[in-house]
Write a structure and sequence with these properties.
Elements: H1 10-18, H2 23-34, H3 36-44, H4 50-65, H5 72-82
Helix pairs in contact: 1-2
Length: about 80
């Protein structure tokens, strides 16, 4: 489904997962069911916000490393120099 970007079999897959004998798999399927519309869109659509999320994660990491040690100006310089 994901490689071909075709969500036509998504509902059947989800229904099968919800009745699986594996407890963790059933729990995972219930979580997906709560936001099935977004999951289907992620399968069908070509764009993603993964790059933005990666940049935000990197910024938060740098901020945590500097917590209580410097002001915003130094944080800004570190982020810009980190690339």
């Amino acid at each position: 489904m994901i490689q071909e970007r075709d969500s036509s079999g998504f509902e059947k897959w989800l229904a099968d997962a919800e009745v699986s004998t594996i407890k963790e798999f059933r729990h995972f399927a219930r979580g997906i069911r709560k936001d099935a519309k977004a999951v289907k869109a992620a399968i069908d659509l070509a764009w993603s916000n993964g790059l933005v999320e990666g940049k935000v994660n990197k910024l938060k990491l740098i901020k945590r490393m500097m917590y209580g040690r410097a002001n915003f100006d130094l944080l800004r310089k570190r982020v810009l120099l980190a690339g």
